[in-house]
Design brief:
Layout: E1 6-9, E2 12-15, H1 19-31, E3 36-41, H2 43-50, H3 53-61, E4 64-67, H4 70-78, H5 89-103, E5 106-111, H6 114-127, E6 132-137, H7 144-154, E7 158-162, H8 167-175, E8 183-186, H9 190-195, H10 203-207, H11 211-218, H12 222-239
Parallel strand pairs: 3-4, 3-8, 5-6, 5-7, 7-8
Antiparallel strand pairs: 1-2
Length: 240
Amino acid sequence: MIVMEKENVFGIDVCITSYEKILKSLNDDIINKKKSFVVAINPEKIMKARKNTSLMELLNNADYQIADGIGIIYSSRFRHGKIKKRVTGIDLMEKVCYLASEENYSIFLYGASDDVLSETVNVLKEKYKSIKIVGKISGYNRKENEIVRIINNSKPDILFVALGSPKQEYFIFKNMKKINCKIFMGVGGSFDVISGKLKRAPVWMQRCGLEWLFRLIQNPKRIVRQIKLIPFFVMSIFRK
């Protein structure tokens, strides 16, 4: 069993890990029939959690908190921490899909619109020839108990939830015991990117930690939300 070393970033435990290590651990969890919850941590989520104790408790109760945002890396470096590289939610999702196709694990997709969801399935099936997607359901107009029933009837090993944060995390946290699968992962807007509805930042922007800027350019409405939270995160770094 792999023990995940974690570093506390403003009250949130964040895994000090690589893609390879976390994939090995997730594979072990499936083999051992252990339920595991993966959350992607970024500055926006941390600042929300600092104002919401229930959200902070939820995030810290997850099994894996991946360093999704570049701000997490900068914060760790400034405080001489050990988190050196990002483990992004969308890249981890893609790598889990590859793992599932290789090991014959089944996947269920929950969230986004019907059109986005259908195209996401098409893209994943084209990219990972052996992938087994056993079910999908959009994120609109369904009762929670019906969603749980549909997922359980499909018997997936892995559940990706794309409802936006923190809605997706609350759904997983509330229903993990009711849903019979092993890996639960909130993936935010990953279906939109995989389906082609939204473009992902060029590789050079990803490497420079500028994906957040690319997302703002695509969706200027995010600016108001970012302005309210991110400056406080930056100030918090320098206060430590």
